[in-house]
Automatic annotation (TrEMBL):
Residues 209-226 have a biased composition (Low complexity). The chain crosses the membrane at residues 33-53, 59-78. Keywords: Membrane, Transmembrane, Transmembrane helix. The keyword Transmembrane helix applies. It comes from Streptomyces chilikensis. Signal peptide: none annotated. This is DUF4191 domain-containing protein. Residues 209-232 are annotated as: Disordered. The keyword Ribosomal protein does not apply. InterPro entries: DUF4191.
Amino acid sequence: MARKETAAESANAGRLKQIALTYKMTRRADKKIGLVLAAVGIITFGVFLAIGFLIGHPIYLGILGLLVALLATAIVFGRRAERAAFGQMEGQPGAAAAVLDNIGRGWSTTPAVAMNRNQDVVHRAVGKAGIVLVAEGNPNRVKSLLVAEKRKMSRIVADVPVHDIIVGNGEGQVPLKKLRTTMMKLPRVLTGPQVTTTNDRLRALGDLMKNMPLPKGPMPKGMKLPRGSKGR
């Protein structure tokens, strides 16, 4: 019993430390985060408490308001922390690879399947939507990389749909913060076994990571990209 309590205490301490670290990292990019969170909590609690006095149950509504206030504060904090993380990552080499690495179950990602001397790079993700090539770098240069990669893959996976995405804020591009959402909206056309077969075929092509180093970042130290909440 004592061991279980110690383990639970250690886990809670670890969570609190992570929350504190995430808050510090978020505050560097979002100076108003403290005021915003305080306002959300106080206003939410105040509304419920006021309703409680109006209907004659201030204690019950006060307790409920406290719980809802904590939940609302946590949701707002999560979203602003996510926005801050994307803000720090955007425009840095490897940012799209970091997002793909956290895209979730059902996807198999391979960073840097193609790259040029200017460090424009193409990453590959395989899932039930087929193959998705995600390019980051100069829009004009990455187009030739995408064409070359499609041509190379067509020899062994001609029957699998291939989508290409260029990460950026220009016309026809997908902003980094919307990359995961965009990919999750693609129509599912492959079964699980077909995804596995496609991955097996593509492994024969290899990738640049076996021959040259590429930073997986650029995630801010101590900052983790929230799962399942991107691109809201």
